[in-house]
Amino acid sequence: MSRNFEHILKLELFHDYYRNGISQDFTCVPTKQCQRVIDRHQMIYRNTNNGFELLNQSTNNDINSVLALNKNTKLIFKLILKNNALLNITDLHRENGSILYFFNQKWKNVLNMKSIKLRPKLFKYKVNLSRDVPVELTVKDSFGNEIISKIVNGKSGTYETEINFESYRSGIYHFTLVNQDTIVQQEQICIDNQLFSEQPLGLIEIQKFTHQLVPKNYSYSFISKSVPWTFCLNQRKKNNDATYRIEQKEPSVSNNRYSEINFNFEEKTDDKKQTSIVFESGHFNKVGEFTAMPIPFYEEAVQLQLVQYEQEYDKPSKPSKPSKPKKPRDGHGHKQHHHDKPKPKHKGKVLIKKLAEPSIYNLKPEVFIYI
């Protein structure tokens, strides 16, 4: 008797920080309840480079030896971050005390994501409202069953009440505050003692299965954070004849994912009366308003360079020694003096130095340059 393995579920995680888009910075782990479902249905869970997959094992003479997942089955996986530095370069919009909640929709292969609160089974539920009015707090489970219903009074706009879920199972619950049939606030809260102690980056919930063992492929793509970049140029000896620019080297290269980068500059004086030239990524519009231009973080380095544009001059030529003693004259018959001010010829471009891009460990990139 041979065994066959068929895909039931597959999840892939991507991140546009990487050139190939594949992120290996995460690990997915089934929750205890999810692992029980996997064991009961005789499925095999396996991690991949950028996600996980569920396999169905069956025999060649009984293809239906595995119980099919029904429409009420929910599989929840913990998302564990292996590289904490990735948080600095990822656009997550996650609030303090919250985790990321990924969930699927029946006819879509791309997961949705939002931030939800994570709390233990015994905690104080606290919200702030604009005015003190009696509100009714209703808590329902994921199937719509009402668990709690109570009146909560506010004081100075703060509403606080104790929530005790010790006699209820862990899970995601819906909290609703209502005042005179008007919904004041709605939110989802994950209540789980173990998860609260572990503090995973997020939870991945897959549901809405059909009775047939139809393979499901899901994915989610993380987006790199974009922030304004700042360079501070400090000159040991000021050159009044020079103009400095920060330019991108070879911005038209085909494999360059950075769009055209512009830096505005202005002189600023600090409290110690020291003047520096500050370059900020952005540009001025037609009415003179400055608009910051956030720059994304990518795996490949952007090639920036500090360039000096300096006014070059024609040097006054020394007069040739005349055969007869007479004062040197120029081509227009005027007397020529050695102390005449040189005349501008053209602007020269000089590469001062290549610049290292701001570090991903700095949430507000600011680089100091000394010349």
Question: TL;DR of this structure?
Answer:
Helices cover 4% and strands 48% of the residues. By secondary structure, the chain is mainly beta.
Structural notes for this entry:
The protein has 371 residues and is mainly beta. It has helices at 32-40, 193-198, and strands at 3-15, 26-30, 43-48, 51-59, 75-81, 98-103, 112-119, 122-128, 135-140, 146-152, 154-155, 158-164, 171-179, 182-191, 202-206, 216-222, 226-227, 230-234, 242-248, 263-269, 275-284, 290-292, 295-296, 304-314, 343-355, 366-370. Strands 2-5-15-6-7-14-13-9-10 form a nine-stranded mixed beta sheet. Strands 18, 20, 21, 22 and 26 form a five-stranded mixed beta sheet that branches. The chain is flat. It starts with a strand and ends with a strand.
The rough form would be described as: flat
Strand content range: over 45%
- What order do the SSEs take from the amino end to the carboxyl end, as H and E? EEHEEEEEEEEEEEEHEEEEEEEEEEEE
- State the helicity in percent bands: under 10%
Biggest sheet, in brief?
9 strands, mixed
Could you say how many structural domains there are in total? 3
The main sheet orders its strands as 2-5-15-6-7-14-13-9-10
* Low-confidence runs of at least 5 consecutive residues: 61-65
Helix/strand/pairing class, anyone? mainly beta
Mean of pLDDT: 80
- Rg over CA atoms, rounded to whole Å, is 33 Å
Distance between the termini: 76 Å
The number of helices is 2
Number of strands: 26
